[in-house]
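Hi support team,

I've been running sequence recovery on a batch of backbones for a student project. Most finish fine, but this one hangs at about 90% for roughly twenty minutes before it completes. I'm not sure whether the input is malformed or the queue is just slow. I've pasted the structure tokens below so you can try to reproduce it. Let me know if you need the job ID as well.

Thanks,
M.K.
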């Protein structure tokens, strides 16, 4: 039955379709339907156990390559290297699983949103049952405070208002009317004769018939989308996998070349094969996955301190690569708190310009309007939650306005008790209350301006009351229209002095005095403007995706800087008429998507991803959950966000502050750039090792370095500096750079630098070897080559901090960890070179002073050459190096 369009049907037709009557179902029929269709609850997706998480980690391409390298190391009797690689794999796996172990309980959170009990008619009598026992065809009673337990077609309504923000994104309660005739398909938020699971009744009462339960409800459809949305690799995972595959191919090619050249020189096949395999393994940076994982984990730790909780490690880097941030409006870009921003009395009306509530000096002048708003009001402050309202948010805005004017609504109501009221209804679009104020009996009326104005014969001015003219009314209506065009919700106020407390059903709404009007809106968060400006400077486009009306959404978008000249705004109805190809064309230039459903949000995210964007999605409602899960990175609000949104997200903003995203983007970029620094540092050294052996093989020299030398350099002198580079501070201009759009960590400039720096280190290493051999012996040459290779890579770590700035520049901050890492690495190198039994293990010898001076000079040479290339890059603005 979930495919039926119940909102298009007459109530009699709906009852006929669900085979029910206004007296409800019999207990027997309800039990039968419950057995056939199951409980009114959501099916939970089976959670992944620890073994499935473990399997996901060890089947990662980069990890598989390392496992293969470890097995080969054992096969080649390189026991230490094999063990070290396995330990690295274990560390990487443990850290990743520990971070991602948080259970995916989106469906469980959705369950917790349902009402525990429901009032229904069974066998013609009212019964209180568990909401999970509701079935299609049940007749249900709703009243203020009720959580809607199922999708319901309304049969009778009395001044019903329903808060649907969590489902549609609309910031104010929606007036519902069972008699509303809808003749064409429309967005969920426009279905006035329907109410949906997880919504809240804020005013009035109603009777309706249940038309969908459990997984067939609108919330059930969202749950299905969450279940259907497969987990996918994040950009960093894809890039690290690409690094592993690329290096594996390079390793195989190097292995073949060295073996072929050696055979040409008729060297023994088996030792040659062993050497070739050892070098092929050595080109794979064993520490890269673990280092990348640790770098991301440290990023997570830093971000928590700034109120950004990351649930999945790779999300740190992904946010830094984001090219588009898709944000829900209500509660994310705005405060989710209706606020009076404009106010107008007779003086403002004559001038044709409202007064901002931020610029009011003479508060006494507005006393009558403030009293009207505070007393003609059914809402109140929540005693358990500061700055929160119980009741209609529109009326809440009037209470907050009174507070700003120094008026306590609760005290005012106690002083001027309500003697009589004409409640709000959707036909009159106004409400009236009566109060004894001093010696007078005053009735206050509030409502839509066009419903109050015809009933007014007078207007309140600074000089007292006078008759209202036709010109006055035209000016009032024009001002109301202009305020509405600014996406403001407009309320008018009137009063009347009466001579008695009215009887029941007495009409007081005539011969009234118009007081003034207010305009209110859910305003933007103050910090959002600067945050969006920073995102724009960083090359990140912000797109608003909301269930609210197009006019309201566009007005907010223009105010906070999302909307730029030439941008488009598209409604959900327009989206329905577009295929994926058409959507892909317009999505690049659309700043606002309004009146959208959860499925629309999902389509928009998928379209952005198809067009090559890295899409981040922020949100706080149930309606945001599928898109949060589908985005490259989903960001939920931690304070006002629903549990469903939080559990579908990769990152949670603990302070609901949009500016936290800017910090997170900066941290993500820092992580990405630091991983690149680590790759560049490790691979330049590995390239130097390979080229050194390759050149020696090509010219039929004895081996300048041994496999054990390579292992020592890779594990003892490279690992700690690589980790230290992973926590390098962010460059000051990092948020002025454009996002990285390449599908690999191997950007063209990085490849050039790795090869160039590797060549510089190779030149220094081979020069040291040849000098040692020429002036003394092969073992001296080998010791000098090993020393230069190790020391030059350590010095090279300083070069990695910036690809443009000199090592003496202060623009990159201070990295004390790099200093300590290099000190430890240097001590380890000293132990290998100067402790006799260690020298013997590594087949090294002692050097004289002249040889050490040569080693020091050649070790510094690559650093000098890289500094020269940076100077050339700065002078000629070369992007290739």
């Amino acid at each position: 039955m979930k495919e039926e369009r119940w909102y298009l049907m007459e109530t009699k037709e709906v009852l006929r379709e669900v085979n029910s009557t206004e007296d409800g179902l019999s207990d027997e029929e309800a039990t039968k339907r419950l057995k056939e269709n199951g409980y009114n609850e959501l099916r939970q997706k089976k959670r992944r156990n620890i073994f499935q998480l473990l399997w996901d980690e060890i089947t990662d391409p980069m990890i598989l390559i390392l496992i293969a390298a470890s097995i080969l190391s054992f096969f080649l009797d390189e026991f230490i290297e094999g063990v070290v690689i396995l330990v690295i794999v274990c560390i990487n796996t443990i850290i990743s699983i520990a971070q991602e172990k948080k259970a995916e309980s989106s469906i469980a959170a959705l369950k917790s949103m349902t009402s525990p009990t429901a009032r229904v008619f069974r066998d013609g009598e009212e019964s209180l049952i568990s909401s999970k026992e509701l079935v299609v065809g049940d007749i249900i009673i709703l009243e203020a405070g009720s959580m809607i337990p199922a999708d319901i077609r309304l049969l009778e309504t009395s001044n019903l208002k329903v808060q649907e923000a969590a489902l549609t994104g609309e910031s104010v309660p929606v007036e519902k009317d069972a008699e509303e005739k809808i003749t064409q398909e429309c967005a969920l938020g426009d279905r006035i004769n329907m109410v949906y699971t997880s919504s809240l009744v804020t005013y009035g009462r109603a009777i309706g018939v249940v038309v969908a339960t459990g997984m067939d409800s609108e919330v059930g459809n969202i749950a299905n989308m969450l279940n259907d949305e497969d987990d996918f690799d994040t950009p960093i995972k894809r890039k690290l996998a690409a690094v592993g595959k690329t290096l594996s191919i390079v390793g195989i090619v190097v292995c073949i070349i060295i073996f072929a050249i050696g055979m040409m020189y008729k060297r023994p096949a088996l030792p040659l094969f062993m050497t070739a395999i050892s070098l092929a393994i050595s080109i794979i940076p064993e520490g890269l996955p673990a280092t990348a994982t640790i770098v991301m984990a440290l990023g997570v730790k830093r971000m928590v301190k700034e109120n950004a909780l990351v649930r999945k490690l790779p999300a740190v880097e992904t946010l830094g690569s984001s090219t588009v941030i898709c944000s829900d409006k209500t509660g994310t870009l705005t405060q989710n708190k209706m606020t009076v921003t404009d106010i107008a009395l007779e003086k403002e009306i004559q001038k044709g310009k409202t007064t901002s509530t931020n610029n009011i000096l003479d508060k006494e002048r507005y006393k009558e309007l403030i009293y009207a708003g505070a007393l003609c009001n059914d809402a109140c402050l929540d005693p358990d939650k500061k700055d929160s309202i119980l009741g209609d948010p529109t009326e809440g805005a009037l209470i907050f306005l009174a507070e700003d004017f120094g008026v306590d609504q609760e005290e005012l109501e106690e002083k001027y008790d309500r003697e009589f009221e004409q409640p709000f209804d959707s036909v009159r679009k106004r409400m009236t209350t009566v109060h004894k104020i001093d010696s007078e009996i005053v009735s206050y009326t509030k409502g839509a301006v066009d419903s109050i104005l015809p009933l007014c014969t007078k207007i309140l001015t600074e000089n007292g009351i006078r008759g209202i003219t036709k010109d006055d009314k035209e000016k009032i209506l024009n001002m109301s229209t202009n305020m509405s065009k600014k996406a403001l919700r407009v309320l008018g106020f009137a009063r009347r002095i009466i001579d008695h407390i009215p009887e029941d059903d007495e009409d007081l709404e005539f011969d009234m005095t118009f007081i003034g009007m207010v305009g209110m809106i859910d305003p933007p968060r103050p910090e959002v403007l600067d945050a969006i400006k920073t995102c724009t400077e960083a090359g990140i486009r912000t797109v608003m995706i909301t269930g609210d009306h197009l006019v309201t959404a566009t007005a907010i978008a223009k105010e906070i800087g999302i909307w730029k000249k030439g941008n488009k705004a598209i409604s959900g109805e327009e989206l329905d008429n577009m295929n994926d190809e058409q959507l892909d064309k317009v999505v690049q230039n659309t700043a606002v998507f309004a009146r959208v459903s959860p499925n629309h949000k999902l389509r928009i995210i998928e379209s952005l991803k198809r067009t090559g964007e890295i899409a981040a999605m922020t949100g706080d409602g149930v309606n945001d959950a599928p898109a949060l899960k589908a985005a490259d990175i989903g960001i939920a609000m931690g304070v006002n966000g629903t549990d469903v949104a939080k559990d579908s997200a990769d990152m949670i903003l603990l302070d609901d502050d949009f500016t936290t995203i800017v910090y997170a983007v900066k941290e993500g970029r820092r992580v990405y750039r630091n991983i690149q620094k680590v790759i560049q540092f490790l691979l330049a050294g590995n390239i130097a090792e390979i080229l050194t052996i390759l050149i020696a093989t090509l010219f039929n020299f004895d081996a300048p370095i041994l496999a054990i030398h390579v292992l020592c350099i890779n594990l003892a002198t490279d690992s700690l500096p690589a980790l230290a580079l992973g926590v390098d501070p962010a460059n000051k201009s990092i948020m002025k750079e454009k996002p990285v759009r390449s599908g690999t960590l191997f950007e063209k400039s990085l490849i050039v630098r790795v090869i160039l720096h590797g060549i510089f280190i190779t030149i220094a290493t081979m020069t040291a070897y040849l000098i040692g051999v020429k002036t003394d012996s092969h073992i001296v040459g080998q010791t000098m080559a090993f020393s230069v290779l190790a020391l030059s890579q350590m010095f090279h770590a300083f070069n990695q901090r910036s690809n443009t700035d000199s090592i003496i520049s202060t623009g990159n901050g201070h990295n004390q960890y790099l200093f300590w890492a290099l000190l430890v690495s240097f001590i380890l190198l000293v132990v290998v070179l100067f402790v006799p039994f260690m020298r013997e293990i590594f087949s090294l010898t002692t050097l004289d002073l002249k040889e050490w001076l040569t080693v020091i000079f050649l070790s510094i040479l690559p650093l000098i050459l890289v500094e020269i290339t940076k100077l050339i890059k700065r002078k000629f603005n070369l992007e290739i190096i």
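--
Follow-up from support: It reproduced on our side and the slowdown came from queue contention, not your input. The radius of gyration is 36 Å. No action needed from you.
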